[in-house]
Amino acid sequence: MTVTRTTAQEFFNSGKGQQRQSSGHCNTGPQIINTFLGENSVNICRQWVEDGKRIPPDRLIEFSGRMFMHGISDIVNNKL
Q: Is residue 48 within 8 Å of residue 55, measured between CB atoms?
Protein backbone atom coordinates (compact mmCIF):
# COMPACT_ATOMS: atom_id res chain seq x y z
CA MET A 1 0.00 0.00 0.00
CA THR A 2 2.95 2.36 0.41
CA VAL A 3 3.36 2.45 -3.36
CA THR A 4 -0.27 3.51 -3.85
CA ARG A 5 -0.07 6.26 -1.26
CA THR A 6 3.14 7.51 -2.83
CA THR A 7 1.54 7.49 -6.27
CA ALA A 8 -1.48 9.45 -5.08
CA GLN A 9 0.73 11.88 -3.20
CA GLU A 10 2.90 12.41 -6.29
CA PHE A 11 -0.23 13.22 -8.29
CA PHE A 12 -1.48 15.74 -5.77
CA ASN A 13 1.97 17.28 -5.43
CA SER A 14 2.09 17.74 -9.19
CA GLY A 15 0.55 20.76 -10.85
CA LYS A 16 -2.49 18.77 -11.97
CA GLY A 17 -3.48 17.64 -8.49
CA GLN A 18 -2.91 20.99 -6.82
CA GLN A 19 -4.73 22.83 -9.57
CA ARG A 20 -7.78 20.59 -9.27
CA GLN A 21 -7.84 20.86 -5.49
CA SER A 22 -7.48 24.64 -5.39
CA SER A 23 -10.18 25.16 -8.00
CA GLY A 24 -12.66 23.19 -5.89
CA HIS A 25 -13.20 20.50 -8.53
CA CYS A 26 -11.69 17.68 -6.52
CA ASN A 27 -12.08 18.18 -2.76
CA THR A 28 -12.16 14.45 -2.05
CA GLY A 29 -9.58 13.58 -4.69
CA PRO A 30 -6.88 12.11 -2.43
CA GLN A 31 -9.34 9.70 -0.78
CA ILE A 32 -10.85 8.65 -4.10
CA ILE A 33 -7.45 8.09 -5.67
CA ASN A 34 -6.17 6.17 -2.64
CA THR A 35 -9.27 3.95 -2.74
CA PHE A 36 -8.89 3.36 -6.48
CA LEU A 37 -5.20 2.53 -6.20
CA GLY A 38 -5.59 0.39 -3.08
CA GLU A 39 -8.49 -1.69 -4.34
CA ASN A 40 -6.96 -2.19 -7.75
CA SER A 41 -3.53 -3.01 -6.32
CA VAL A 42 -5.06 -5.81 -4.27
CA ASN A 43 -7.00 -7.13 -7.27
CA ILE A 44 -3.92 -7.04 -9.51
CA CYS A 45 -1.90 -8.97 -6.92
CA ARG A 46 -4.67 -11.54 -6.48
CA GLN A 47 -4.91 -12.05 -10.23
CA TRP A 48 -1.13 -12.35 -10.51
CA VAL A 49 -1.16 -15.11 -7.87
CA GLU A 50 -4.13 -16.88 -9.51
CA ASP A 51 -2.26 -16.79 -12.82
CA GLY A 52 0.67 -18.59 -11.23
CA LYS A 53 2.98 -15.55 -10.93
CA ARG A 54 4.00 -15.96 -14.57
CA ILE A 55 5.74 -12.59 -14.71
CA PRO A 56 8.45 -11.38 -12.31
CA PRO A 57 7.35 -9.07 -9.48
CA ASP A 58 9.42 -6.18 -10.86
CA ARG A 59 7.59 -6.37 -14.17
CA LEU A 60 4.23 -6.55 -12.40
CA ILE A 61 5.10 -3.40 -10.45
CA GLU A 62 6.21 -1.58 -13.60
CA PHE A 63 3.13 -2.71 -15.52
CA SER A 64 0.62 -1.78 -12.81
CA GLY A 65 2.39 1.50 -12.06
CA ARG A 66 2.15 2.52 -15.71
CA MET A 67 -1.54 1.63 -15.78
CA PHE A 68 -2.20 3.66 -12.63
CA MET A 69 -0.30 6.69 -13.85
CA HIS A 70 -1.09 6.66 -17.57
CA GLY A 71 -4.13 4.46 -18.05
CA ILE A 72 -4.72 1.43 -20.19
CA SER A 73 -3.98 3.33 -23.41
CA ASP A 74 -0.30 3.55 -22.42
CA ILE A 75 -0.14 -0.22 -22.10
CA VAL A 76 -1.94 -0.84 -25.38
CA ASN A 77 0.09 1.72 -27.32
CA ASN A 78 3.45 0.58 -25.93
CA LYS A 79 2.68 -3.17 -25.98
CA LEU A 80 4.10 -3.84 -22.52
A: yes
Q: Summarize the confidence of residues 1-24 as an average pLDDT.
A: 56
In sequence order, what DSSP letters do the residues of 3-43 get, joined into one string? HHHHHHHHHHHSHHHHHHHHTTS-TTHHHHHHHHHHHHHHH
Cα-Cα end-to-end distance for the chain: 23
- CA 80, CA 10: separation in Å to the nearest integer? 23
Q: How far is CA 80 from CA 11, 64, 67, in A?
A: 23, 11, 10
Closest Cα partner for 75 from 56, 58, 60, 57?
60
Query: In this predicted structure, what is the pLDDT of residue 48?
Result: 96
